[in-house]
Write a structure and sequence with these properties.
The protein is built from 7 helices and 5 strands; from the N terminus they run βββαβααβαααα. By secondary structure, the protein is an alpha/beta fold. A 3-stranded parallel sheet has the order 3-4-5, covered by helices on one side. The chain has a two-stranded antiparallel sheet with strand order 1-2. A hairpin with a 5-residue loop joins strand 1 and strand 2.
Length: 181
């Protein structure tokens, strides 16, 4: 392997193993980190964040978590913003993304050891107004109205369990899903 990560796809601790072979053919492995700078990725859901201040406070927490993953090493990071919410329109502006990145870089350089955020990816969708969408004509509106009515039916849980039973009893499918609680 590499003794130093060269880019974000080589994230995490890098180093080598000291291997000791004992007289009784036993083997002892001892990992020694050798990376001078550690690459670490981070992800933040914008769900529930309403203001730029909320976002910056959440990003500060993510940066602290990333620095901890750096385990005392200078760290280079990429942070991905995911989910949907009211910050969508603000995050689509190039100047907003630039300002956020610049602020994170300034904060990161004030840390010891430093944390350099090399990129903030924004994969944020606009918020969905379910009440408005349920009033619309078409498939989505009809589906939302039907699911709302079904959810309030007295036998909803039994009906749902019966309908989903074939899915959860299928050996191929159940490996990838968990039963709802």
């Amino acid at each position: 392997g590499n003794i130093q990560g060269r880019h974000i796809r080589e994230a995490g601790e890098k180093g080598c193993y000291l291997v000791r072979v004992k007289e009784n053919n036993g083997v002892a492995l001892e990992f020694h980190p050798t990376d001078a700078v550690r690459w670490v990725t981070g992800e933040l859901s914008v769900q529930g964040l309403r203001t730029l201040q909320d976002l910056m406070e959440s990003l500060e927490k993510i940066c602290s978590e990333i620095a901890e993953k750096g385990k005392g090493r200078p760290t280079v990071s990429r942070i991905a913003l995911r989910g949907s919410g009211p910050l969508h329109h603000l995050l689509q502006r190039p100047e907003t993304a630039f300002d956020i990145l610049e602020t994170l870089q300034e904060m990161g350089m004030a840390r010891s050891p430093f944390l350099w955020v090399e990129k903030v990816e924004t994969d944020v969708l606009p918020p969905v107004d379910l009440e408005f969408s349920a009033k619309e004509k078409g498939f989505l509106g009809e589906l939302l109205r039907y699911s709302r009515d079904l959810r309030h039916a007295p036998d909803f849980e039994e009906r749902l369990a019966k309908e989903l039973a074939p899915l959860f009893s299928n050996p191929r499918a159940r490996r990838f899903i968990t039963q709802p609680d």
